[in-house]
Structures are given as structure tokens and as C-alpha cells.
Amino acid sequence: MNRARAEAVLREARVDVVVGTTYANVFYLTGYVGFSQRLMPTTQVYAVARADRLDEPVLIAPIGDLDMHAQLPAAIGRLRPYGHFYVHLGEEERDPELLRYREIVSSDPGGSAAQALLDELGALPPASRIALDERGISAEVRDAVRARFGERVADGAALLDRVRMVKTPEEIRRLEASALVMERSIAAAIAAAREGVSESEMARVFDTSTIASGSAPYFTVIAFGERSALPNAVPTTGRRLRRGDQIRFDVGCYTEMYGSDISRTAVLGEPSPKVRAYYGAILAGEERMLEVMRPGITARDVFHEAMRATQEAGIPHYERHHVGHGVGLDVYDLPIIAPASEAALEPGMVFEIETPYYEVGFGGVQVEDTVVITDAGCRRLTRSARELVVIA
Amino acid sequence: MNRARAEAVLREARVDVVVGTTYANVFYLTGYVGFSQRLMPTTQVYAVARADRLDEPVLIAPIGDLDMHAQLPAAIGRLRPYGHFYVHLGEEERDPELLRYREIVSSDPGGSAAQALLDELGALPPASRIALDERGISAEVRDAVRARFGERVADGAALLDRVRMVKTPEEIRRLEASALVMERSIAAAIAAAREGVSESEMARVFDTSTIASGSAPYFTVIAFGERSALPNAVPTTGRRLRRGDQIRFDVGCYTEMYGSDISRTAVLGEPSPKVRAYYGAILAGEERMLEVMRPGITARDVFHEAMRATQEAGIPHYERHHVGHGVGLDVYDLPIIAPASEAALEPGMVFEIETPYYEVGFGGVQVEDTVVITDAGCRRLTRSARELVVIA
Known about the structure:
Two copies of one chain form a homodimer.
Chain A: H1 3-12, E1 17-20, H2 23-30, H3 35-39, E2 46-50, E3 58-62, H4 67-71, E4 78-82, E5 88-89, H5 96-105, H6 113-122, E6 130-132, H7 139-149, E7 153-155, H8 157-164, H9 169-191, H10 199-212, E8 216-224, E9 246-255, E10 258-259, E11 262-268, H11 273-292, H12 299-312, E12 324-326, E13 333-336, E14 350-354, E15 357-360, E16 363-365, E17 368-373, E18 378-380, E19 389-391
Helix pairs in contact in A: 1-8, 6-7, 9-10, 11-12
């Protein structure tokens, strides 16, 4: 967690307590990973963090999930379990992980998530102002909290979005690792490119490589030829690679909880003049972003720079609603590099930058890389060449 | 979609219109797969279905996502896109998928999800009663719908849960396919069991097999020896297999959108008498469920039968909060086989049945299978032997 930033954001918003409720926000505030929360999205897990004691959050989670806490010794805060779960406590155990687990499950807390949250919020200093992350909480519990605390409660997801915009060194390390996994998997898939291979065969090579890296596949857009015009193309068994096809990769995974969203374009055989020209234009757009991204510039200005560069470099009719976005615990973190975004870039922000072009009847070309804003400018976290890949 | 059941459930609840908002419920009502909805969980996608016209739902989705609609020719209903997205319409295109996409993206609808939903609900016959799935809609849009339509709106997720409890033949086919993928992956992982292999190495073999089957890994609990007592054990690089260790698998994937949740227990070498005895007891509990599950019996009665059988067969102190759950578009569908569930079983319900036992200081033993309720009883969809696996 970026604690200094969290304190500043909460202070500025005059918030005394923030309640994280999504998988990502609970992890961000406590280091806890809600296994059941991901498996059964209705599972309620909350992190209640006082602005003046961010290192002592309260974690409200179902007791049946809390072996995850025993498995995550770095998770911080006090546990407030709820519900029932049966684990027999048998013979002596010396393994530290299982000793922690034994201690956690020796209670049978009962009760519900709603009751646990209302209790914890009720025990706060009177008049505390509460920012309640509205995205992961059930509608019923949100309604109950608002009914009980009235004006003292406001939605809080946007505040946590703002805190999470600026990454810590550890977050940057994980984002870099996630991007590198995608680059390796793209290389593995390109190595499998040959006439007749199907999109889905190539996607399996890709996903297998991602898993071999210890990461979790998240989205794998691999599309050939005319199908590369479909922004969210699902790999098919039917479309097989032919000479002259472009292959558009737009892919992401999760590595140690952190996301990535990387793109490359390859061609089997000699690229058409149009593919070469248009790819050159979008690469010029990305290149321009790498030149101008630095602390202080607004996302809007970066957007316009990229648009102009892409248009001037060979796609005069180029249009786009955004040319990049933050990346972190979610693949789309803030800020978005879009015409309406007045956010000024800050050191430690990490972006996926991209200038994709889709044309029905032609296909798509795309290049997308991870960059971190530094004190002086920006630094690319990806390492592979960004040129159009020509497969002999 | 189980249309007859949907009509009956909505009629009984006196609901005129149901609005699905989660990834699963939108798919259920329309056949549409919200790519961005999965990628960016804040993305708003809605299926607005009149109870008297369930085959003509309205699909509200961001225009940038709607190439998914072109890729899913079987999706039903009318499109109501919102937002902006730029795709150039170039040379002529004869591919039917891209022709559909060209038609979809030739409009630039603008506006927001909230506006689109308020418009569609406003165009309904006056006094229509609206069931709004509260689980996938943003808090802001839910608040806006309630403010505008007041008493006419109620939360609707529970109604859709109830509809989805009874599966169609096509859903059963997919659930069977999903379970079989897990059985194959368990077999692949067991084939890789040998002294010194780590939990995470075995998990990679497992996930690679799942991907080779064209399915998406979802959760992979593979735990050795004492760690098998952790219900949600995350495979580690540190714990390596030793002779005498039990290996507990609790694993699930998604196949054609449908989930699975299967468990087996294996031992490298000779199982201890306690592992043999306790595994025998939990298998007797599962066996008892296979004997008693039939139309008309309540989930509560199934629960008590399984508990008693497990206790009598060798774990007298056996306790458990549930011994199974529905499975479908979510890995936890309703009903849950639990002491408080009065739901009566019906033909077409599909369950994961399980009698797991966890003991700190000993480990865990588990067996879990997919069963469908038939007219006369139940039928197992899994095919592998359910006995304790002994690896020589």
C-alpha cells in the first residue's frame, strides 16, 4: 500500500475510515487474498481501515476462508471472522502455517458479514466519516450501512482508485514481472506460427507458456487476418493462419496479483504495404507517448500528442477514445489517457500505452507497452522490440 | 435458458420485467458474453427481459464490447449499445462475422449505461414491476433506477438464482464436459506425482492439462500431507511430495461458460490406517447422497443423510456446514445442501456433492462429484473411480 498517499487522499476528502470491499481493495489495504471472494463473487470480505491507523486495518472475512490468512503471514491487521466452518483440531502441529491456522479456526464466530461490519463501524469514534467502497459490497449490506449511519457514509471506491494510481516500488516490480510474462508468452506463440495453425492452437501455446511462468492467464486475444479487426476477438478453431496474415496479440495475465495488458502485431511472410504503413503510424503514436510522458503533463495532453503523431505518421483518419490506462491490481486502473482526463502524471504511475487501429475489411494493428513515470520522464517496463514482427 | 421455469418464477413473484446485470445472468438471459465485463468488472452490461417476451430481451452493452455480439450469432434480443468506440469501416467484407460487426459499429450511440437502462425501463408499459439483479449493477445506477421507479423496483438476483437452479439439457452437457476436463487434469497431475515434486509443479501440470482441453483454469487446490488440512491451500514451491503424503485435489474450471468443482484424494505409497479409514468414511457419506438424491427430497434431508453416513462409517465427530451445492454458470449455484435448506430437489438440478474432512495435524481427505437429478433418482456426470488413489 502507498500509505503516504492514502493518508493524504483520505485527509483531503475528510474521511476518517475507509472500507475496502472488492478483492483488489481488500488486498490493497491488508495484503489478504479472499479465495472465496474470487470463487463466489457474492462472498463478503471487508477491510476497515482508519485513516489515522492504516497499518491496523480490521479484516472481516468468512471463517471458512481464513486459512488464506494463515498462508499469508505478511497480511496485516486484526481478524474479525464471521460464520461457521468445521475443522477438527487433532494431533499436535509444529508447522508455523498450520499453527496460525489452528489459532484462527479455534473460534466459531457465527453471525453474518453485515453484522460484523455494522459492529465494527459502530465501535468507531462517534461522528467518524466513512468512505464505503461500493463496488464489492452486496446491495443489501450497503443499504444497511447507509440506513444505520446516514450522512456519515459516502461511496468510497473512487478514493481507493485515486490512492492506487501511484504505485510503490514493490507494485512496480510485480507489474514489470507481469509484463515480462506476457512478452515471453507472445514469443512462444510466435515461435509456433506456421501456415495452418489455428488461432485457438496458438492461444493454447500462449496460455501454457503463461502458466509455465507461474502466472494466471486473464485474457488472450489472438486474431488472424480479417479477424484482427475484432477488438475482443476470441480465438477460433476455424481460422487458420495463411501467408500474409497479420496476427494481432492483445493479452494480459495476473502475476502475484498484478495485471498486464500487452500487445504486438506479427505477419507470417511479407507484410502488405498497408500493414507496414499503418503499423508504422501507430508505433509513431506510441513512440510519441514515450517521449512526452513525464510528471506534470496531463493525461489529456498525452492523448492529443499520441493522436496527432499517429495521424501525421500515416493514418490521417485515426480516431480513438483512449490511448492507454493505468494498470495495477486491476488491468484498468486510473488514470485513463483520454481527452476528458485532466489528471496530471506523477512519478510511480504505471500505464499501458497503446494506439490500436481496427478496420473492418483490413484487420487490426496494435502495439501496447507498460511504462512507469519516473522523476524525469518515463521508463518502459517491457523489453521486447516494438517493431512489426515479420515471421519468415 | 430454462424458459418455462423463468416464466413460472417471474409469474409467481408478480414480476413483469427482469434485469440481469452480472456476467452470468446477462449470458443466461441473452447468450451474450461480456468480454469487458469480465476484464473490467465495473463495466455495465444489462439484459432487460420482459416476462411475457423472454425471447426478445434488450441487451445494453458498451459499443466497444459488441464485437462479442458479432462473434456470438446465437445471442438473442435487440442491441442497445452505449458509449463511443472507433472502428474504421474500410474495404468490402464478405465474412459473415465481420459483416455483423460492421453493422453494429456503424452507429455511434454515445450516452451512458445508466441513461440507456433508464430509457429502456421508461419505455415499458406503465406500472411494470421490475426485478433488478442487484449483484452486477453499479451502486450508482441501482440508486438511480430506484430513485426513478420507486416501489416498482425490487432486487432480482434471488429470482434469477431460482430460475437457474434447474438446468437445460445443453447446460447439463456443458457441466458434464467441465467435470470431465477436471477428471482428466487430475489424472495428468497424478501421473506426475513422484517423490520431490512440489505442489506448484503439480499444479502447473494440472493447469496445462486444463488449457490443453480448451478450458479455463479457475481454482486449483493441490495440497500435500499436513497442508491438505488447509481448505483453500495455495500450491507452494516449498512443499515437496514425500512417501506417505496424501494429496488432496479440490479443483474447478470453466468450460463453455460452465463451472466444475471436483475433488479426489491420492496417496504416494501406502496410506496410513487413519487416511484409509477416514477416506472410507467420507466416501460412504458421498455414496449415501448418491443413494438418496431424487426428486422431492429436501436438501436438508440429503444433508442429514450424508452426515449420519459419514459419522457412522468412521468419523463419529464429523461436522460440516454443507455437503454440496448447485453448479452452473457459477461454481456455487443454488441450492446448497445444508441444514437450513428446505429446497426440494427437482429433475435437472446439478450438484457438486462432497463430504470433506479437514484436521489440523493430520491433513484433509475429500471426494467431490457432479450429479444431475433425474426423474427417478440421480446420475453421476463424473466417470473416474472414487476410491482413494494409491500411487505405487
